[in-house]
Design goal:
The chain is an alpha+beta fold. Helix content is 47%, strand content 18%. It is built from six helices and four strands, in the order H-H-E-H-E-H-E-E-H-H. The chain is globular.
């Protein structure tokens, strides 16, 4: 059972990617720079080809962060191939969901892939909790 789940997870990661342009929500993001250390950034990296789960993670991430209404939190949707320097900085090779503040990085990728389509409310709650913890 575990072997099947790991195989499925690996296949999802390999199949995932991005079919759109990167979107930057801050001036720093538009220039490919990191945000000031006092800000919390939610970074969603994707490749060129995307599965339904990848798209769900992006949509839920945007909705959740925007719903927080905080000026000290931003979301960045980044195609890995167009943001190689940032991808290398965070060790990203596949679709990845990270919450970052300064040197603190929380990797929510597994959570995202396991909950985005099956339990979106739990996805939102966990993302909100992580952002809130880092914003303190």
């Amino acid at each position: 059972m575990i072997r099947r789940l790991l195989t499925l997870f690996t296949l999802l990661l390999v199949a995932c990617g991005g079919n759109g342009r990167s979107q930057a929500s801050t001036p720093e993001a538009a220039r490919g720079q990191a945000a000031p250390s006092g800000r919390v950034e939610v970074l969603y990296f994707h490749g060129k080809k995307r599965c339904a789960t990848c798209i769900a993670i992006e949509q839920l991430t945007k909705e959740t962060v925007e719903g927080l209404g905080r000026r000290d939190v931003s979301v960045r949707i980044l195609e890995i191939g167009q943001n190689e320097e940032l991808a290398q900085r965070y060790g990203v090779a596949w679709s990845s969901l990270l919450v970052v503040r300064g040197d603190s990085v929380r990797d929510l990728t597994r959570m995202g892939f396991s909950l985005a389509r099956s339990r979106p409310e739990e996805f939102r709650a966990r993302l909100t909790e992580t952002v809130t913890q880092l914003a303190r």
